[in-house]
């Protein structure tokens, strides 16, 4: 490609609103341009990177016996209504009506759609196992699109679905996809971890893993052991029940005035106690049931764990009106004592170990002291409901917990029969008995993987593409096209390198050398070759993007030098 014709305009300044390196560099290097919040056009360089990543994904999916299909982005609402996700998915699901007033959605994922597709086609055990996949644009109406393509409303994803006749066979499909994902992200040169995760809105039956690229800008927190291979998303990192009941306090529960103190920090300061001596009550609406979740004051409620403990499809903070009606007080003063039986009480394991706790008295401006669980208020159930804290023992009993930030780029799920039962996707087994197909779902965020690659591969000058994702292998610069020897050598190398199988971007623009070198660093191709002052001597300057120095190489030695250099680049 001749750079004078390349439509990937560069920007010298950091665009306003671009807060992280990948977003800044994708805009500055001309990979993308924003059309609307969370919606981007991919320019030629960005599109080439997309295709490179898609090619790796396809190769590994095909190697794992996947078959590529293409499903419609526009899906009839009835398949989502059948699974229950039309209402439960929330406002992120883009809904619309056609001219005949029929309801449709723009697919954020395709579990319902593919289950409806295969129910008439994969109706016998003889047609399974099977894995179908696609690479397609998806849609989610994010409340706060940000970080460029990391949290976009329109994005490109590879989604795959496995279909099996038994849970044993499903397990084989699951781990085949798991290993394919390992190969994909390893080939891209990413520093990643596969961590235990929560199924979230996907639901399903069985284990699930996230593939998370380590990055300080990641929105996910990874919990890992410093002495074992344990790793999990913080949302599901389990905390074992090791808490025993303490000896009861002698004092009776008494009420104290706290007229302005409603937070744990304010109450603890006023009463001269530690945060862990306070008991906080958080009210939730769980599928229409009002639930009071009790938590030690120094711990944070983990809503994923709460939803799982309750078996709730939809868990939301209770409204101010619900709280006032059930507790008779404002948030900050509510507590578990004296509640009616209409409010379920669920407590974290750590609450069992509290004696003489301070909690809300269900009167504005007042708290109780010396409150004891089960003596002064009932607890319906104890469960693991909090976020694990850094430095605690690892859930697997080996070492202590450490935290890292990460970007989710892939997720594998065991769905079981959740969608096949909802959509009536059954098969006849060897005995002629109808049974629901057992499914798995496997996603790779193709467009967000670009951002993850850049977050791990950049410096102050620009992108440093790993060779597997780079839009071109080599950046060939003619330093001064007005010099005939430099121009001639550049053209000769452009032809010979392409014939040798290299993909080459030739900077033949009539620009100052400084502009060319800055753009080359910004584009970040793995190797730069400069035809400059020594072109007449058949000598070029070669520099790997991440190297500090140029190396002068005779043109006759260039093929061998490039092969050796390429083998050393990740």
UniProtKB/TrEMBL annotation:
One Pfam family linked to the record: tRNA_edit
EC number: 6.1.1.15
InterPro entries: aa-tRNA-synt_IIb, aa-tRNA-synth_II, aa-tRNA-synth_II/BPL/LPL, Anticodon-bd, Anticodon-bd_dom_sf, Pro-tRNA-ligase_IIa, Pro-tRNA-synth_IIa_bac-type, Pro-tRNA-Synthase_IIa_type1
GO MF assignments: aminoacyl-tRNA deacylase activity; ATP binding; catalytic activity, acting on a protein; proline-tRNA ligase activity; transferase activity
Keyword Aminoacyl-tRNA synthetase carried by entry: yes
Catalytic activity from the UniProt record: tRNA(Pro) + L-proline + ATP = L-prolyl-tRNA(Pro) + AMP + diphosphate
SUPFAM superfamilies registered for this protein in UniProt: Class II aaRS ABD-related, Class II aaRS and biotin synthetases, YbaK/ProRS associated domain
Record's subcellular location: Cytoplasm
Gene Ontology terms: biological process: prolyl-tRNA aminoacylation
Domain Aminoacyl-transfer RNA synthetases class-II family profile: 38-466
Keywords: Aminoacyl-tRNA synthetase, ATP-binding, Cytoplasm, Ligase, Nucleotide-binding, Protein biosynthesis
Enzyme type, top EC level: ligase
Gene Ontology CC entries for this record: cytosol
Superkingdom of the organism of origin: Bacteria
The family this protein is said to belong to: Belongs to the class-II aminoacyl-tRNA synthetase family. ProS type 1 subfamily.
NCBIfam families documented for this protein: PRK09194.1, proS_fam_II
Record note on quaternary structure: Homodimer.
Domain comment quoted from the record: Consists of three domains: the N-terminal catalytic domain, the editing domain and the C-terminal anticodon-binding domain.
Function: Catalyzes the attachment of proline to tRNA(Pro) in a two-step reaction: proline is first activated by ATP to form Pro-AMP and then transferred to the acceptor end of tRNA(Pro). As ProRS can inadvertently accommodate and process non-cognate amino acids such as alanine and cysteine, to avoid such errors it has two additional distinct editing activities against alanine. One activity is designated as 'pretransfer' editing and involves the tRNA(Pro)-independent hydrolysis of activated Ala-AMP.
Name of the protein: Proline--tRNA ligase
Native source organism of the sequence: Marinococcus halophilus
């Amino acid at each position: 490609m001749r750079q004078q014709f390349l439509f990937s305009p560069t920007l010298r300044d950091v665009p306003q609103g671009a807060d992280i390196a990948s977003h800044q560099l994708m805009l500055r290097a001309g990979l993308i341009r924003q059309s609307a919040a969370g919606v981007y056009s991919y320019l030629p360089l960005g599109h080439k990177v997309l295709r490179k990543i898609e090619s790796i994904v396809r190769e590994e999916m095909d190697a794992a016996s996947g078959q590529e299909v293409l499903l419609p982005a526009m899906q009839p609402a009835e398949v989502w209504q059948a699974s229950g996700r039309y209402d439960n998915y929330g406002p992120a699901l883009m809904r619309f009506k056609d001219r005949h007033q029929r309801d449709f959605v723009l697919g954020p994922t395709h579990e319902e759609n593919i289950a409806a597709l295969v129910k008439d086609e994969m109706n016998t055990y003889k047609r399974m196992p099977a894995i179908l996949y696609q690479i397609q644009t998806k849609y989610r109406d994010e409340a706060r699109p940000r970080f460029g393509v990391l949290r976009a409303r329109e994005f490109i994803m590879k989604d795959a679905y496995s279909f099996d006749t038994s849970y044993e066979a499903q397990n084989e499909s699951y781990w085949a996809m798991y290993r394919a994902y390992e190969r994909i992200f390893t080939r891209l040169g990413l520093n990643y971890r596969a961590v235990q995760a929560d199924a979230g809105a996907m639901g399903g039956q069985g284990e699930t893993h996230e593939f998370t690229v380590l990055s300080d800008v990641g929105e996910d927190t990874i919990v890992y052991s410093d002495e074992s291979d344990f790793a999990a998303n913080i949302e599901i990192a389990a905390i074992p029940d090791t808490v025993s009941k303490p000896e009861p306090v002698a004092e009776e529960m008494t009420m104290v005035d706290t007229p302005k103190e409603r937070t744990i920090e304010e109450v603890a300061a006023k009463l001269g106690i530690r945060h862990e001596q306070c008991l906080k009550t958080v009210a939730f609406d769980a599928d229409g049931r009002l639930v009071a979740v009790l938590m030690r004051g120094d711990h944070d409620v983990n809503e994923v764990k709460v939803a799982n403990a309750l078996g709730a499809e939809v868990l939301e903070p209770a409204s101010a009106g619900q709280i006032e009606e059930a507790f008779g007080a404002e948030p900050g003063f509510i507590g578990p004592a004296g509640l009616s039986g209409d409010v379920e009480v669920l407590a974290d394991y750590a609450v069992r170990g509290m004696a003489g706790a301070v909690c809300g008295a269900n009167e504005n401006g007042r708290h109780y002291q010396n409150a004891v669980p089960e003596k002064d208020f009932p607890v319906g159930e104890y469960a693991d409901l909090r976020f694990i804290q850094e430095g605690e023992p690892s859930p697997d009993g080996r070492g202590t917990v450490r935290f890292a930030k990460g970007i989710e780029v892939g997720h594998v799920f065991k769905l079981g029969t959740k969608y096949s039962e909802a959509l009536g996707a059954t098969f006849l087994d060897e005995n002629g008995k109808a049974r629901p197909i057992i499914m798995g779902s496997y996603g790779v965020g193709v467009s967000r993987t670009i951002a993850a690659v850049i977050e791990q591969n950049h410096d102050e000058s620009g992108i440093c593409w790993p060779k597997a994702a780079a839009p071109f292998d080599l950046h060939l610069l003619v330093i001064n096209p007005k010099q005939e020897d430099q121009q001639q050598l550049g053209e000769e190398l452009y032809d010979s390198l392409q014939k040798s199988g290299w993909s080459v971007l030739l900077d033949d623009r009539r620009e100052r050398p400084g502009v060319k070198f800055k753009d080359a660093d910004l584009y970040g191709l793995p190797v730069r070759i400069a035809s400059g002052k020594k072109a007449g001597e058949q000598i070029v300057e070669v520099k790997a993007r991440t190297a500090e120095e140029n190396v002068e190489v005779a043109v006759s030695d260039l093929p061998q030098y490039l092969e050796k250099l390429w083998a050393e680049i990740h």
